[in-house]
Fold this protein.
Amino acid sequence: MQELSDESLMHRIAGGDREAFRILVRRHSAPAAGFARRMVGGEADAEEVVQEALLRVWVNAPRWRPLASFRTWFYRIVLNLCLSRRRKPVPLSLDAAEDVADTALGPAEHFEREERDRRIAEAIAALPERQRAAIVLTYREGLSNAEVAAIVDTSVSGVETLLVRARRTLRSKLGSDVSEGNED
């Protein structure tokens, strides 16, 4: 059953096939959690978003119609949940304070890398929602502009415009911290 397409698995899930659902979860939960983490800014929130999205997949499987690929549909659910969550005030978590030191780098290099990564993450988080989604889906998740367009409900040229604006904003905020083709 591992070799079945996502769409074939969805047809099985619509019939209540739990094993098909487990396969789909294994395929998509980690990448979706990475996307959600970049959108909402926290590991626990990202896990909750993905769990809620997967629950919606299970519940709505009988009504699912393959108008788009499963991946596009699933990321759309995740994006909508992330946007809803970001609109709500979220208390800060102490879990973020427990970072493991990178022993491959010296203390100065480690600090510089963490500082640069923090600045980039903050700059991406400050982007308007649709620009942030376009940047994360394109550069972190590796989706095509057509897939991103379906997820954010715009045209391919709309995605290209969102990416141009986002890159311009990131370059102006970050200067030398970001180079062409490495915005995230």
Q: What stands out?
A: Residues 116 and 177 are 6 Å apart (CA to CA). DSSP finds eight helices and no strands in the chain.
